[in-house]
Amino acid sequence: MNPRWFYSLLIISTLLSGIAHWFWPQEAARFVFASLSLLFWAALLGKATESVAHYAGERLGGFLNATFGNAAELIIAIFLVKEGLLDMVKASITGSIIGNLLLVLGLSLLFGGLKYKVQSFNPMLAGHNASLMLLSVIALFIPASFSAYLGAGEMETLSLTISGLLITGYMLWLFFSMITHKSELAHPGDRETAGEEKEEKHVGSPPGQEPDWSRRMSVFLLILSTFFVAVQSEWLVGSVEAVAHSFGWSELFVGAFVIAIIGNAAEHSAAIFLAMKNRIGAAVEIAVGSSLQIALFVAPTLVFVSLLFQKPMNLVFSGPEVVAIAVSAFIAKSISRDGSTNWFEGTLLLIVYMILGTAFFLI
Amino acid sequence: MNPRWFYSLLIISTLLSGIAHWFWPQEAARFVFASLSLLFWAALLGKATESVAHYAGERLGGFLNATFGNAAELIIAIFLVKEGLLDMVKASITGSIIGNLLLVLGLSLLFGGLKYKVQSFNPMLAGHNASLMLLSVIALFIPASFSAYLGAGEMETLSLTISGLLITGYMLWLFFSMITHKSELAHPGDRETAGEEKEEKHVGSPPGQEPDWSRRMSVFLLILSTFFVAVQSEWLVGSVEAVAHSFGWSELFVGAFVIAIIGNAAEHSAAIFLAMKNRIGAAVEIAVGSSLQIALFVAPTLVFVSLLFQKPMNLVFSGPEVVAIAVSAFIAKSISRDGSTNWFEGTLLLIVYMILGTAFFLI
Amino acid sequence: MNPRWFYSLLIISTLLSGIAHWFWPQEAARFVFASLSLLFWAALLGKATESVAHYAGERLGGFLNATFGNAAELIIAIFLVKEGLLDMVKASITGSIIGNLLLVLGLSLLFGGLKYKVQSFNPMLAGHNASLMLLSVIALFIPASFSAYLGAGEMETLSLTISGLLITGYMLWLFFSMITHKSELAHPGDRETAGEEKEEKHVGSPPGQEPDWSRRMSVFLLILSTFFVAVQSEWLVGSVEAVAHSFGWSELFVGAFVIAIIGNAAEHSAAIFLAMKNRIGAAVEIAVGSSLQIALFVAPTLVFVSLLFQKPMNLVFSGPEVVAIAVSAFIAKSISRDGSTNWFEGTLLLIVYMILGTAFFLI
């Protein structure tokens, strides 16, 4: 998007959101403008994170991208936890994961595939990504399948243990992919274009380019956008229940499809944009990396954060949520494992997304 | 089979079926002769469809094969729907899918493997087939796993939505594999024998050869065999409940193992015959293509057809059925994905088929 | 371990176990010393089996290794069956399978990977192993998922049928891998080191080396260690319930984590030792082969053995057990299928093992 348009819309939507919040009694208007404003601030936060990461140097920067690349989702979820809307937190985690694996990946493959007959990427990371995705599915599947056998206190213990293990695993993965085996993952023999090399090193980060801002400006924008993401998240969360009620939407649908799409919109457009420039490897890496980050870092972090608010959240996801995540992981893995994509594979992912969307909407 | 024998048995079994239907009060006799006659007419219908497809030209013919290749199963199922035997319809869909993936594929690999130590086929299509098979499993798994959360009306809506999406997906797959990416799927670099090339283009169709009949004769036989398949299906369906009851067989077993085997017998023998001629690629394509056609085209079509008879059928398959389909898809995928087969892999598939058969029989 | 140390500890622990059994009223002491003694005798039994197999010649020896390689686990389980502790039998089968796939494989990959950056093995067998592992999961999953639909008698019939089919399948696999397709599995084109060739032929057996003992001595030690494994198993089983009760451990946890680790300790150390000598192919083969042997041979044999004791055991594993086995099989397959391993992949397996261990402990 043209920067001038972007900043204009950012300011206008934020002003409208403020007016709606303070003077407009209708919840739906508050919700719509907070969503719009949040969408733009989340995009700016993402860009500022990358820019700060750039100045922080390769290692620290890579670490920043890999942990705070989904900061907006994390902030929204923290406000949901604070309000005690724990089911909606889980639904938004579910929605972020399946949104990345089905919607973002599906649209990227479809639009990229409409322009280029066959698109190829280096399947080197695919194996590791598939194993990490399987770990995510397992970590969410086990509490759900043991829930009939465990009491609330035991489930709390199990959730905290799993959360600690997932964060440990994610940190070890960063250590592995950025330090001990960096060259193995970055320089496979069958690499096709040198240009892709740099991009695929960072989990969940769009390709590093020269940042638009100075070091100072980047830090300032990071702080500013974090502040506004927080404000708009609070306002959004404040009206979400009333809106869901008035539209007859289930908490599950709002969390998994409305909130998740708002929080991830910036990444969605970035991935599709890259796919249409035939950089399908980077697009796949954004979609898959982002869903791994949500499952292995954001979700377990929220379990610990929920303790601070004394609203302890466990990792017991509902049946439909576990099914949705498992199904998405399997079909995304089946499609991406050969390192070659086309428009039909994108369509397949979108069909599964539409099936899940319909099912969640009807609940 | 020798044509003379074939037509003699066709006529004799049809005569006996007529006599049984009109003069023989014993349901078991009616059932047996209707089954026999149906088996031969279904084989003739399959051959006539191919022959008409041959004259229709490559594109329209490929489309005919891919949609009406399982016409006999569709016709039997329509009569089951008309009688309101919806559970038996679902069982017969289940049985057709697992019969193709386990029995047909298993026997082909076993008999082919007893003759040839290792048989190879081009694994190019395997990736796409695996993703489509996963879509089938997902499409049947989601209604079952959401059934506890949805009312009957919502499930009807979900089933119709999924059915529409599956038929759309199947049509897009035909468009993809026959038009936009035909050459990519047909001319992979690692192809071994030129003879296999032609066969693998058509989903679920046995290899195209010069037809035995003229264009007129083909159309006439298509109409005639469709008529007789319909008549025998009606007679079969009329006696199936009484027979199941008298033998103490469950609806699930009759649908999944008796009816499914009758409807698919012709394809079964064709695939095994091809495998023994070392054309294992064509045999795999019949088995996998046929099960995809059932899951992605026949099953959703039946959901819409059931509305015409005002006996709306949803897509909620029972637990054992979903388990059977998922299990078959996973083991068939695991075995076929390397493009190399042997007798032991055939045995593995048959063992799983026997386990499922025993379990369904005992229900 | 230094042989002198080994035999000293074997004798001391056996003496202490005898003293505890006859003179020490405290169950915990009996349990600990019986466990220790059992651990050493199981290791000796394993080594004696290999040695006898060596003298028996390649075919009979391979067969011996593939069927009695897990004799210690089988003997312990038989005493559990005799005591009617059927749930603990199933838990110990579960624990042996997941212990091999997660703990043994995980530690091997981790320790091997800390010493060597990347370790490679011939992925030739991996495809067949994956299909056999899938058969194991299916064979345990189907009784569990059909249990709501079948009565006790029907489930008994189903369990016996499945057991018969699994043993048949395992025997056919031995026939396939040792006789009809021996050279195909042993001499793949992409083999890297000739040294690995010999090891990977035998299912579940550590690499054949020159035995330390004469033929006579080997047979004598086989008989002696079998006798002592039986004695210590009986003593262990006699105190296990009281100990589990006093520690507040569930039957599931004791079977799956305590007993399974005691029975498998020898293989565990052998596999890790091989991995640290960069013979990762042999280590993988021990871990995967051993879990296949448990699932396809030991478990079904126990179903038949249970009939002799008139304490019929079916194959209905509990939900958590089926989940644990399925999850382990999938992640082990995902990690081992590319034939290349590193320390992070070992860590992933260990994380899943710790998650399952915590969940089983809390039940």
Automatic annotation (TrEMBL), chains A, B, C:
Keywords: Antiport, Calcium, Calcium transport, Ion transport, Membrane, Transmembrane, Transmembrane helix, Transport
GO cellular component: endomembrane system; membrane
Location of region: Disordered: 187-210
Keyword Protease applies: no
Ranges in coiled-coil conformation: none
Biased composition (Basic and acidic residues): 187-203
Localisation: Endomembrane system
Pfam families: Na_Ca_ex
Membrane topology category: Multi-pass membrane protein
Transmembrane segments: 5-24, 30-48, 60-81, 93-111, 132-152, 158-176, 219-240, 252-274, 286-309, 344-362
Superkingdom field: Bacteria
Presence of the UniProt keyword Metal-binding in the record: no
The Sodium/calcium exchanger membrane region domain, residue ranges: 31-178, 218-356
PANTHER family listed in its UniProt record: VACUOLAR CALCIUM ION TRANSPORTER
Family: Belongs to the Ca(2+):cation antiporter (CaCA) (TC 2.A.19) family.
Function: Ca(+)/H(+) antiporter that extrudes calcium in exchange for external protons.
Annotated protein name in UniProt: Ca(2+)/H(+) antiporter
Source organism of the structure: Melghirimyces profundicolus
